[in-house]
Amino acid sequence: MEILFFCIGDSAKASTWSNVPYLFSKEIEKRGVVLRRINLAPNPIVNKLYNKLLLPISRLFFPHNVYSYERTSLNMLLTNLKIRKAIIKYPSADYCFFICFHFYNRYSKTPSLLFCDWTYKIYIRERLHRTPNLLERRFIRQEFCAINHALHVISLFPECAQMMKVDCPQASISHFRGNVVNSFYEGQLPDMDQFNKKKTNNKILFIGNSKYREAAIKTIAALDYLDDSVTLDIIGMTSDEVGITCPRVIYHGYLRKDIDSEKDKYYKLLLEASIVTNTTPQWGGYSSIIEAMYFYTPILVSPFKDFVKEFGEDISFGKYCKDFTPESIACNIKLILNNFQYNKMCIKAHDTVKEYTWENYTNQIFELINKNEGYTH
After folding, report:
1. How far apart are the first and last CA of the chain?
2. How far apart, in whole angstroms, are the C-alpha atoms of residue 332 and residue 318?
3. Is residue 153 pLDDT above 60, yes or no?
4. Angle at which helices 286-294 and 342-353 pack, to 10 degrees?
5. Distance, CA of 165 to CA of 67 (rounded, Å)
6. Continuous H helices in the chain
7. DSSP per residue, 271-320
8. Among 120, 170, 275, 326, which residue has the least CB neighbours within 10 Å?
9. Are 176 and 137 in contact (CB under 8 A)?
């Protein structure tokens, strides 16, 4: 079998899109599939110039506009030329896998599978809480066109898949049971002795970039309501980005899993953490949260839609934070650290996501495409 693997960025690099294209493509290659990697990233110079010069101008007419260069008609045209070139170069391909929702193969009968998290419309309406503007609506129509023409469309999240089915009722949209843990760890997972150490470490771990700055600030403020022995590690931001220095807070910045020293630090912090938290109301860093669960770590998150849809209204492996004040965050942290069933919470966290492997997820994708081999190669 031969697959053309289209990705906005280099899918051979672990740092691309939260490690997803890299781990997905590697799992496909394990099956003996011939994988052709095609990088659909826009021209970096044009991309930078547009986003620095023209995007701010567009915001004078469309406040809060997120119509970046990647979504312009020019970039769509140039990217489709790359896709056409790849289709011509590899005419024997059996499938085109797109790690996005806004492109498909329009140049041959080779079927397209689109794989991503959410659409642009969902991002604007559900994350930014506003109505798309004129420019954004044009891109949304292009995205819906790709979704409607693909043979298979897969969303990582159940709530998003349901909303996509409403927007594109004729499309073949799927969501598989479970999700994927993007882990590069090759050592031993914690045992009972380490659970006890995790609890007594009194270490809170916050994972998230500047999009989650507000939640990080409130978590830092929560330290005032906790015992002096409790410390906070922050992965994904520096002290300059957060704007707060505190002797009980250690900033580690962004840690790349494709750099051994940074990967080792990331997993050391995760294995030692007593709690992993991100209480951002609408989206609490799903990928890092389920990875923490896989490593036997109780969590403190907001009850955002897709998480609740997947894990339920009540969780036995941590707490939902519904009041986002520092006092409430501190109270929930205490409830976890002082829980006499802390070890059981650790085990339950792992057991809940232990099947969330790329092997299992990719099996489901190949079962889907093998059900109706609509291609003739």
Report:
1. 9
2. 9
3. yes
4. 110
5. 24
6. 20-30, 44-49, 55-61, 73-89, 120-122, 134-149, 158-167, 192-201, 213-222, 239-242, 260-272, 286-294, 305-311, 326-337, 342-353, 358-371
7. HH-SEEEE--SS---HHHHHHHHHTT--EEE---HHHHHHH-SS-SSEEE
8. 170
9. no
Give the contacts of 179 (CB within 8 A, at least 6 positions apart).
156, 157, 286, 290, 310, 353, 356, 361
User: Exposed, middle or buried, 376 (CB in 10 Å: 0-12/13-18/19+)?
Assistant: exposed
Q: Cα separations (Å) of 292 from 113, 154, 220? A: 30, 24, 20
| Alpha carbons 9 and 17: distance in angstroms, whole number | 8
The continuous run of DSSP H or E covering 229 comes out as: none
CA distance 141 to 26: 32
- How far is Cα 330 from Cα 221, in angstroms, rounded to an integer? 9
For residues 207 and 281, give the distance between their C-alpha atoms in angstroms, rounded to a whole number.
15
Please tell me the distance from the alpha carbon of residue 96 to that of residue 5, in angstroms, as a whole number. 6
The token duo for 264 is 């080792």
What angle, rounded to 10 degrees, do the helices at 358-371 and 20-30 form? 70
How far apart CA 251 and CA 249 sit, in angstroms, is: 6
pLDDT in tens, 314-335: 999 999 999 999 999 999 999 9
Sheet containing 318-320: which strands, arranged edge to edge? 249-253, 231-235, 203-207, 275-278, 299-301, 318-320
Q: What are phi and psi of 3, to 5 degrees?
A: -125, 135
Burial 254-266 (b: 16+ CB within 10 A, else e): ebebeeeebbeeb
Task: Report residue 123 as tokens.
Answer: 């991002």
Q: Is 236 helix (H, G, I), strand (E, B) or coil?
A: coil
pLDDT in tens, 18-68: 899 999 999 999 999 999 999 999 999 999 999 999 999 999 999 999 999
User: Sign of the C-alpha dihedral, residues 184, 190, 195, 201?
Assistant: negative
> Concatenated DSSP letters for 18-43?
GGHHHHHHHHHHHTT-EEEEEE-PPP
